[in-house]
Amino acid sequence: MHGKAKMNEQGRVVIPAACREEAGIAPGTELLIEVVGEGELRLRTREQAIRVAQEIFARHSRKGADPVAELIAERRREAKRER
Fold first, then answer.
1. Residue 1 belongs to some domain of the structure
2. In 10 A of CB 42, how many CB atoms?
3. φ, ψ for residue 11, nearest 5 deg
4. What pLDDT, on a 0 to 100 scale, did the predictor assign at position 63?
5. Overall number of domains in the chain
6. Measuring CA to CA, which residue among 80, 53, 79 is closest to residue 67?
7. From CA 47, how far away is CA 57, in angstroms rounded?
8. d(CA 42, CA 32)
9. Does position 58 have pLDDT exceeding 90, yes or no?
10. Which residues, at least 6 apart from 75, have a Cβ–Cβ distance to it below 8 Å?
11. Which whole number is the average pLDDT over 45-49?
12. What is the CA radius of gyration of the chain?
C-alpha cells in the first residue's frame, strides 16, 4: 500500500485512511517513530515493536534456554566476585 501526505506548518502529517487501515492503526494509537534512512521514517505501534524484538531474540537464543535463569545466575556470579 502506498499513500501520499503533506506536512503542514506545524510538522503534522495525516496518514491516509487506507494506509492506517492496512497497518491496523486506529485513532488514538500511540506510534513509535524511528529514523531508518536519509529522509525515511518507520512508524509502528508499541505492540509491533515488541513483537519484532521478541522475534529477533528468538532467532538468537538457544532452544530450551531460560534467559531469565541465565541472567540471574550471571548476576549471582558477579556478586560473588565483588565480595
1. no
2. 13
3. 85, 15
4. 83
5. 1
6. 53
7. 15
8. 8
9. no
10. none
11. 92
12. 20
Quote the cell numbers at residue 18. Answer: 487506507
- The secondary structure of residue 13, as a DSSP letter, is -
Which pLDDT tens digit goes with each residue over 32-45? 999 999 989 999 99
Residue 57 has pLDDT above 90, yes or no: no
In this model, does residue 65 exceed pLDDT 90? no
Whether 10 is in a domain gets the answer no
E strand map for the chain: 31-37, 40-45
Q: Hey, what's the cell of 27?
A: 485513532
- Cα 68 to Cα 75: distance, rounded to the nearest angstrom: 11
- Is residue 7 assigned to a domain? no
Question: In the block, which residue shows the cell 492496512?
Answer: 22
Contact criterion met (CB below 8 Å) for 9 and 15? no
